[in-house]
Specification:
heterodimer, A: about 250 residues, alpha+beta, Jelly Rolls, Arc Repressor Mutant, subunit A, 2 domains, four-stranded antiparallel sheet, three-stranded antiparallel sheet, 10 strands, globular, disordered C terminus, B: about 60 residues, 1 helix, flat
């Protein structure tokens, strides 16, 4: 089943059996891509949307000098360009960061679902609203946090997202990103990220080694990144207290 | 009812600069995180000092 992680553990939006069966039936094709491949470019007309089954993908914008800013990363279970259904073109490029498997859903199938199952459409809408909530958190991260806070916030967010997808135990998860990727996500240089990762390790908050993240002090890392998982609308939060809860205690 | 601050306030806490591996890192105040070459850092620092002197003179003259 390719849709098993889509909206898994999301508050009020998890798919029932009939909805999941319908979405599975809407998949026209499953494709695999190597790491670092562009799969959609800004401005190209699109007649399909992409559900990420395995791997990590990004949405990004390049500045005039070709320097890249990642504006979103997508994890297994994300319907990463569902907004292309009404928009028909993207305003950014989409690329794989790791080897990835995707399920293709033609927009004609989404049209049919809209006719047949309005409650499923509401859940697809939920998924795009969730993307928007994550974008807001990324704006906060870049606008208000220092270097260590940005990386801490990103690692807490990724842990919570993977936890809801069933891919983190709440403290440990695989993350096939490089420090250069983290730099492009957090608006830092690679050497700055390297320094921050060492600082997080020395403060016994988190270790990122060999594509494995281990959060040693979940509450401490959340506090360092001012991370509150409410915007992810998970049914079950990871074990740590959010920074807001921690400040109250 | 809580009052909401209108706009960002000027920062009253300094950023912290440190050097490592031949580069300068500026962390904070919140929202600031930059890596600079030594030359860029020195020129930025001088520019900040010069601007601070002008700002202090403006305040002393009541020109604010």
């Amino acid at each position: 089943m390719f849709t098993e992680r889509f909206l898994r553990d999301k508050r009020g939006a998890s798919l029932d059996t009939a909805e999941r069966t319908r979405l599975e039936a809407a998949i026209s094709e499953v494709k695999t891509f190597a790491a670092r491949k562009i799969i959609a470019r800004a401005g190209e007309p699109l007649d399909q949307s992409t559900l990420l089954v395995e791997g990590i993908m990004s949405r990004y914008l390049d500045d005039r000098n070709g320097l890249r800013q990642l504006v979103a990363i997508h994890l297994p279970g994300d319907f990463l360009d569902l907004h292309a259904f009404p928009l028909k073109v993207l305003d950014h490029d989409v690329a794989t960061l790791t080897p990835a498997t995707v399920a293709i859903v033609p927009h004609s199938e989404l049209e049919a679902i809209a006719e047949e199952m309005p409650q499923l459409v509401r859940k697809l809408w939920f998924a795009t609203l969730l993307d928007a909530a994550i974008h807001r958190a990324w704006l906060f991260r870049l606008g208000r946090l220092d270097a260590t806070g940005r990386v801490a916030h990103f690692l807490c967010e990724t842990n919570a997202r993977l936890f809801s997808a069933g891919l983190s135990d709440g403290r440990r998860f695989a993350l096939g990103l490089t420090q250069a990727d983290l730099a492009e996500i957090c608006g830092l240089t690679t050497v700055h990220v390297n320094r921050v990762m060492r600082q997080l390790r020395e403060e016994k908050l988190c270790i990122f080694r060999s594509s494995l993240v281990e959060i040693l002090d979940p509450a401490g890392l959340a506090a360092r990144g001012q991370f509150n998982p409410a915007y992810l609308y998970n049914n079950h939060d990871v074990e740590h207290l959010s920074s807001r809860q921690r400040q109250k205690s | 009812m809580r009052s909401i601050p209108a706009g960002l306030e000027p920062e009253t806490e300094p950023g912290i600069a440190s050097a490592e591996g031949g580069l300068v890192f500026l962390d904070g105040p919140d929202g600031i995180a930059k890596t600079m070459t030594a030359d860029a850092a020195a020129r930025t620092g001088q520019s900040l000092i010069d601007a601070a002197a002008i700002a202090e003179a403006q305040r002393a003259n009541g020109d604010v």
